[in-house]
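Extended Data, panel c. Modelled sequence:
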Amino acid sequence: MASLADQAIRWQEDRLVLLDQRALPNKVLFVECTQASEVVAAIRDMVVRGAPAIGVSAAYAVVLAAREQYAVAPEDWIRRMDTDLQSLAQARPTAVNLEWAIARMRDVMARTGPGDPGPVLLQAACKLHQEDVQANRALGAHGASLLEDGAVVLTHCNAGALATGGYGTALGVIRSAHAQHKIKAVYADETRPWFQGTRLTAWELLQDNIPVTLICDSAAASLMRQRQLAWVIVGADRVARNGDVANKIGTYALAVMARQHDAGFMVAAPTSTIDLKVSSGTEIEIEERSQQELTQYHEVALAPAEAGVWNPVFDITPAGLVTALVTEKGVVHAPCEEKIMALMKD
């Protein structure tokens, strides 16, 4: 039976059902979306998060939008979809899987014949969802092959089943390696300001009976120095053509620390997260979110009201700090543009 994390995104009857990640781990709540605008809000408000999960959710949102527009104007539903798709694309700008999923669904829309487009688009969304899970399982196996027995690993944010269509990217590697009895210890840092490590990664790993030890973000360097860390394993929201990686804020610091302490730095991401249109990380838009994410928690003030706030959600890790980029197609060691282009041509 699939774990709750693996059921975080599901199509049930005529609607999209999302596990509300804002409530975890204290409550297990689900948000039901019957309109595309509700999926946009769910993505924007962090009900669902993680680049692959956002992409999968967006595909289902296209189904809902098409159903709405076809009901109003059967002869003109594709043109009327433009506003819906623009709103969807703007929900979270950094995650490339969002625009990738929309583009893929647009292609299906263009090939849809007369009549109700819902069944055809739903089939396409389900296929995209299934492919993401399959890709995660494949990249999990590839990543696990890099770990030696007795490995101590650290992961950042949440790049598990909750952040994908299922199984996970960084946590997919950890799941696969744990099943092979390769892992001695898993550490997860808290990942401020949304505490994805504390709330989500710890919960998800324990759901699978994988022991995990939490640390505060600022303890990572000491952990690397004292615990003989083998790998830092993270996911990605976008990978540029040259191998630069956009991921949750704090990833860059971990890569620098890993290099200093001779630990491997692994980025686990499906090829749908690689954006060949972007030559380097300098071209990736970094989303900034509300200052309240830093100044308060659950409406409890943590900072003086007069304090200024800078709240970038992601940072850029240069390709030169990445030991291995792990995809469903295989491993790219020391990624660069030449190697990534060769990977994407296979």
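The longest helix spans residues 118-144. This feature is highlighted in the accompanying rendering.
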